[in-house]
């Protein structure tokens, strides 16, 4: 690979300049702060418990909760696209990954209030997807 990295073959307008380095250093200092990391852990624990509660409320839709920290997946027994669309329509952006998983990747600055709002939206999106699936099967 090094043979292809000749002078002029690789460059970046943003990489390595003083502003980028200052931003990187500031971000690192925040991420290395034990108090900040403790807040992230608390929020992640709260989110994990809330997702398990969501699974308990929708056992016919949710197979398992996956992941660690703030990066979580909700493995569904149904197509995740309607849940993703329902969440987006209610103001929550989630991804879809792998085998029927809705992917949650909130920022490290997410709060307990943010988690509660996200869980409420997911609860509504799951209920709407269930109702839609029931209506489809009744046709």
Your description of this structure?
Helix 2 runs parallel beside helix 4 (112-137) and helix 3 crosses helix 4. The chain has a four-stranded antiparallel β-sheet with strand order 1-2-4-3, with helices on one face. The termini are far apart. It contains four helices and four strands; from the N terminus they run ααββαββα. The chain has 139 residues and is of the alpha+beta class. The protein has helices spanning 18-31, 34-57, 81-89, 112-137; strands spanning 62-68, 71-76, 95-97, 101-104. 53% of the residues lie in helices and 14% in strands.
The string of secondary-structure elements, in order, is HHEEHEEH
Termini gap: 58 Å
Principal-axis shape equals: extended
Mean pLDDT, as a whole number? 91
Regions with little confidence, pLDDT below 50 for 5+ residues = none
Please give the order of strands in the largest beta sheet.
1-2-4-3
Radius of gyration: 20 Å
The proportion of residues forming helix, as a percent range, comes to 40-55%
Blueprint of the fold:
Elements: H1 18-31, H2 34-57, E1 62-68, E2 71-76, H3 81-89, E3 95-97, E4 101-104, H4 112-137
Antiparallel strand pairs: 1-2, 2-4, 3-4
